[in-house]
């Protein structure tokens, strides 16, 4: 039986290899994602191991995972730590995120996601005696007019020792032009993964980033010989105040690496989702392929039964074929995954995440690739294999192998139940506060799609009947034959269409969400923003408050309103904190106050959104505990506002309150109103920011376009990846038609013998293909519209208030389906037309 299965497999190499295409893509996504993720882990773990001391003392908010803050450690603490038993030395460090290098052409180096670091230099060793930051070439910078850059940044920017470097900072001086006096790097030669590093002497770093305070962002304590990190940590904890966190170097490195990896974990999730889509769509192709092959081999399998093969052996022979197919597909997918990982790394490098070193090829990648590929292939082939064991010899020899109609009715019932369960899971994820809501929604969508696929042989009957009637009137006899062929085996027709349905359902959903998100951005800005000009950072990081102060002095500027962002913990959950200028915000943004006043002036007052106030039982005058960088503080509710798309569900406080709470003195956005004309205001703002390439100046239209840009970019990426699922679906149509023609070889010969021309035969097969493509497209469009509108309804309070269904795009999908149907039929139709009539008639 094993030899028979392998010979059967080798006899259908092309057909089966076409089926492996889906497995290859799915496995490639899984393998490529794991390789990229493992490379990320190794790279960041290596970097952070070289950038911490044996013991790290830092403000406690950083240990709690809060956002970057303005809290510091006084210099006298460093002196105390140097005297701790077991300590060889203690060194303070000044660190700022938001200092970027501008190359000679005026272009910012990096900045698209990877941070721009501003550091003070010290020669302290890293943890476990590793070499820390060192001068590679040149000397240590001294004074405001000297700087050192990491070697990779200097190379990318085209700067050499002695050149004047342009820097943009978020500190007291937004623009600097010091001389490059040295290049720096870590002792192990590791890169910074796209981050840039500008290094100053300690006093200069304090002037730039700490307003001249004799303090530090954190302190490294180096262990004496024979003292472990844990022993030194315990000794340090005894002498430092409670407001500081004390971590071993290993703990600090793990914390920093895990926080960063968690922040970019969406890349892994994103790619694995598309791997799942490819595998689900591909499973339909495999099911269809094996179903047709089992039907074609009915006589062969019946003969094996007659010669003594058991049902289990017959089933096992088909499963063996699928196992070999899964191994081949997994191997090819693993190889393609290596190339995909390189491609992902190249794409992320353009966004600032520039990984260095070779890819990590871990054993788990190989195990996952083969496990996924083999399991999906064998599971998809199980039902056809199981069906093969039910072939009775006499029935097979009569070529009378039609599944009973009752099986379709059972499938329909199962499908309807799955649709109901999936819709319930979506509802739970969308409208309740259940944990892991995304998984509920994802599982619900998948269940609805699979349920629709199961019920589609019955659901498709009206459409297939309509298509048959239209074909009969439009194309006469050829149309009648095409319609009858499409209706002859609804299981096969709908299984092929279901692969296209899944891809198009997801594309339609994303089209609706993307279009509605873009429209919501325009609506939000139009309804809530009344300013004339917006000043913000092009890469989303904060910028120096000096920009706002300079703009306020310009005659063309009437009002400068600052906006700042931060994260706080309220009632145990992380919440968004938005700081603004109470005196000017009413001139810029429209707020509907339901109770209280709109301008919290004190350092301990805040505004709360209506739904948040209801959830927490808050009223004007109530007190609310908020965990901020300086610890837990009590704020008074000054007002309650209607949830606003501009502010979302944020808790609103004054800029002064954010500074007092320990957040950095940095602005995220400035809203300006004109004292005269908007043109004069734009010109004045651009002059102030001329030396700051990261700070952009926009009017309302440009601001709206900037807010839409990330949505459009994400949609393009999603469309490109979903396009692979559609390619698999199209390949499924080609495969099904090709196998169907082989199955109907004798029938094709008889049709030719009674007068059907080659052109008519090609048209008949093309019409069959169009029916399959249209069926999958219409089912996908209906489900996609339902999914899209459901998600928009659930996300209405998150800022997606505009509901836009892109009917033009959906119409284009229908037209594309007809084109896809025609193109998919070209090769099978050409092959059918070239069959020798006499040989076709003589085919058993």
From TrEMBL:
Q: Is Cell membrane set as a keyword in this record? A: yes
Q: Which domain of life is it from?
A: Bacteria
Keywords linked to the UniProt accession? Cell membrane, Membrane, Transmembrane, Transmembrane helix
The transmembrane residues are 16-36, 270-295, 316-341, 361-383, 412-431, 437-459, 495-514, 716-742, 765-795, 807-829
On whether Nucleotidyltransferase is a keyword of this UniProt record, the answer is no
Q: How does it sit in the membrane?
A: Multi-pass membrane protein
- Name its cellular compartments: Cell membrane
Pfam families xrefs? FtsX, MacB_PCD
Query: Per the database record, which ranges form the MacB-like periplasmic core domain?
Result: 17-238, 493-688
Could you tell me which residue ranges the ABC3 transporter permease C-terminal domain spans?
273-393, 721-836
Q: Which PANTHER family match?
A: ABC TRANSPORTER PERMEASE YTRF, MEMBRANE COMPONENT OF TRANSPORTER-RELATED
The text of the family note is: Belongs to the ABC-4 integral membrane protein family.
Q: What is this protein called?
A: ABC transport system permease protein
Source organism per entry reads Nocardioides massiliensis
């Amino acid at each position: 039986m094993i030899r028979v299965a392998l010979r059967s497999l080798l006899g259908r190499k092309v057909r089966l290899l076409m089926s492996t295409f889906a497995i290859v893509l799915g496995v490639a996504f899984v393998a490529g994602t794991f390789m990229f993720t493992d490379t990320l882990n190794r790279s960041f773990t290596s970097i952070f191991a070289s950038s911490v001391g044996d013991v790290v003392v830092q403000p406690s908010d950083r240990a709690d995972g809060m956002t970057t803050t303005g809290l510091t450690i006084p210099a006298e603490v460093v002196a105390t730590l140097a005297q701790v038993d077991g300590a060889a030395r203690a060194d303070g460090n000044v660190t700022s995120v938001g200092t970027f290098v501008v190359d000679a052409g005026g272009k910012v180096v990096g900045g698209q996601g990877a941070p721009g670091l501003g550091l003070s230099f010290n020669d302290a060793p890293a943890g476990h005696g590793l070499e820390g930051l060192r001068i590679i070439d040149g000397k240590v910078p001294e004074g405001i007019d000297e700087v050192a850059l990491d070697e990779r940044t200097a190379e990318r920017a085209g700067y050499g020792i002695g050149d004047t470097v342009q820097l943009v900072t978020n500190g007291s001086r937004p623009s600097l032009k010091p001389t490059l006096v040295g290049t720096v790097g870590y002792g192990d030669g590791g890169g910074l993964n796209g981050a840039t590093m500008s290094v100053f002497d300690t006093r200069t770093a304090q002037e730039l980033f700490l307003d001249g305070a004799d303090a530090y962002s954190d302190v490294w304590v180096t262990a004496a010989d024979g003292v472990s990190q844990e022993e030194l940590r315990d000794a340090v904890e005894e002498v430092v105040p409670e407001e500081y966190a004390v971590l071993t170097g290993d703990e600090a490195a793990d914390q920093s690496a895990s926080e960063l990896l968690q922040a970019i974990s969406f890349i892994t999730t994103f790619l694995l989702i598309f791997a799942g889509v490819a595998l689900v769509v591909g499973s339909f192709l495999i099911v269809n392929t094996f179903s047709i092959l089992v039907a074609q081999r009915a006589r062969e399998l019946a003969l094996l039964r007659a010669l003594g093969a058991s049902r289990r052996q017959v089933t096992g022979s088909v499963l063996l074929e699928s196992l070999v197919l899964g191994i081949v597909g997994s191997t090819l997918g693993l190889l393609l995954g290596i190339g995909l990982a390189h491609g992902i790394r190249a794409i992320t490098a353009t966004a600032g995440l520039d990984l260095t070193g070779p890819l990590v090829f871990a054993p788990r990648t190989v195990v996952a690739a083969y496990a996924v590929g083999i399991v999906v292939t064998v599971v998809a082939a199980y039902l056809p294999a199981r069906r093969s064991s039910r072939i009775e010899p006499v029935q097979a020899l009569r070529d009378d192998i039609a599944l009973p109609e009752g099986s379709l009715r059972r499938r329909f019932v199962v499908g309807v139940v799955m649709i109901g369960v999936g819709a319930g899971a979506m509802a739970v994820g969308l409208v309740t506060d259940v944990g892991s809501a995304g998984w509920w929604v994802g599982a619900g969508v998948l269940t609805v799609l699979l349920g629709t696929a199961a019920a589609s042989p019955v659901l498709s009957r009206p459409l297939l009947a309509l298509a048959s009637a239209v074909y009969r009137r439009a194309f006469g006899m050829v149309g009648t034959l095409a319609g009858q062929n499409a209706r002859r085996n609804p299981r096969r027709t709908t299984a092929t269409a279901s692969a296209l349905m899944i891809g198009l359902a997801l594309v339609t959903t994303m089209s609706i969400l993307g279009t509605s998100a873009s429209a919501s951005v325009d609506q939000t800005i139009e309804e809530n923003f009344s300013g004339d000009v917006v000043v913000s950072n092009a890469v989303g990081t904060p910028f120096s408050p000096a920009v706002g102060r300079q703009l306020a002095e310009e005659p063309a500027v009437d009002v400068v309103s600052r906006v700042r962002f931060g994260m706080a913990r309220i009632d145990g959950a992380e919440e968004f904190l938005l700081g603004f200028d109470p005196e000017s915000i009413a001139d810029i943004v429209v707020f509907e106050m339901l109770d209280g006043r709109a301008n919290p002036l004190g350092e301990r007052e805040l505004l709360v959104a209506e739904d948040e106030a209801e959830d927490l039982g808050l009223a004007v005058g109530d007190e609310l505990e908020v965990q901020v960088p300086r610890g837990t503080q009590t704020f008074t509710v000054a007002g309650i506002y209607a949830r606003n798309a501009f502010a979302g569900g944020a808790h609103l406080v004054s800029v002064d309150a954010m500074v007092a709470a320990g957040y950095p003195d940095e602005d995220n956005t400035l809203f300006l109103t004109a004292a005269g004309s908007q043109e004069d205001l734009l010109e004045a703002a651009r002059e102030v920011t001329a030396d700051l390439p990261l700070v952009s100046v926009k009017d309302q239209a440009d601001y709206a376009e900037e807010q839409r840009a990330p949505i459009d970019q994400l949609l393009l990426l999603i469309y490109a990846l979903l396009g692979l699922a559609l390619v698999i679906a199209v390949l499924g149509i080609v495969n099904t038609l090709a196998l169907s023609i082989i199955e109907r070889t004798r029938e094709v010969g008889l049709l030719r013998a009674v007068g059907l021309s080659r052109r008519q035969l090609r048209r008949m097969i093309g019409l069959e293909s169009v029916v399959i493509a249209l069926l999958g497209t219409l089912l996908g469009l209906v489900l996609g519209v339902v999914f899209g509108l459901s998600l928009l309804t659930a996300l209405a309070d998150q800022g997606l208030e505009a509901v836009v269904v892109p009917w033009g795009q959906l119409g284009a999908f229908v037209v594309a389906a007809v084109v896809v149907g025609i193109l998919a039929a070209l090769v099978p139709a050409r092959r059918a037309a070239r069959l020798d009539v006499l040989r076709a008639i003589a085919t058993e």
